[in-house]
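Job type: complex structure
Entries:
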Amino acid sequence: MNADRLLDAYVADVVAYLPRDQRADLALELRGLLADELAGARAAADGLPDEQVALDMLRAFGRPADVAARYAPAGVVVVPPDPVSLRAAVVGGAVVAGIVSLATALREGGEALLVLQRFWYGTVTLSLLWGGLFAGGLAVARWARGRWPSGAEWRPRVPRERFNRVGGAVGLAAAAVGTFVLIRPDLMLDVLFGGRAAPAAYAAFEYDPGFLRWGAPAILAVLGAELVFLGYLVVRGRWDDRSRRVDIWLTVVLTAVMAAVLVAGPVYRARPTDDVVKFALLMFVILGVVDLVQKLRRARGRVELT
Amino acid sequence: MGVEGAFDKLELELRRGVVVLAALSQLGTFRYGYELRRSLADRGMPIEEGTLYPLLRRLESQGVLVSEWRTDEGSPRRYYTLSAEGRVLYRKLADAWRGLHQTVDQLLEGGPS
């Protein structure tokens, strides 16, 4: 990454922490000031590579979060900003806690009031637990930054414009196989056991009729869209604004469908299989929410620097 | 912490206290951030860029400075100068500084050798 790209990446990281309406103006000013500083630093550098001069200068300028805190108007930054958005983490954690609690309450059954009570207590308890863990994690991260400052130094992110075609093709093949296995789990058993799997194994992978009515078609439709999109990226070889928007929407829809399947009822007839799949679905929903928060944050931080 | 370490820290605190006044003193006419920093450094008052540039924005948001974009030397730059209220504030701060300086000087006269 050359020096100019380093400056762009740094400015984008700084303004991502600031209110949206201040970003373009501040990005333009900061970019110009850093270019001036770099010109001065180049003159003083004793034969160091340009990129190294720029990186040293930017690291001396400060961590983007700290610089943003200095730029933020009074009252905007209540606590020093951290790489993970506090609000997104708290809201996301509460949503996941709600989904988990609802799924558990529905599974345990009983009268409507009892289910509601379990759902409410579960949500509150898990949200508080998550809040405590998150706050503890932030405190540990802050202590680690102070203890090992070099580990907290700013590092430029790898630009996301290029799409890794080889990795994408491997992912596409794996996703296609995975989707096929979801459609025909019996064939997977035939391949694994040479057609001699026990009848109980086939029974373990028998879908619930309720899931087959709406959950399965919905999941298949979204997975099909994901496959087509992945194929498009493999052919195209790069990201653009439209493909990023499509990516975000697909993540929203897939996460929402998985969350709906999670709480709607059994996926498999056999309880043990269903429990394992529900746990996997829960993990996918959590990962989907985290992935979505990161994608939205990147999209909001992307500022045109002209 | 040794004496040298304590000195560095306390001297930094002293400098921090006068950063705003030093910056305001050089903004009687329009200047952009890098030019101001060089000017202060050349006069023996180096201020870290990560401190000075955000300070200019904050002072502007408080009405002490006004700014405008200029492109007369190539790339666009934001130039800052004192606002009318900023000039009043600067004079008051300068008077306060001179008074404080005099008082501390007198105290130092009678201090330990």
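Summary: The longest helix of chain A spans residues 112-147. The mean pLDDT of chain A is 82.
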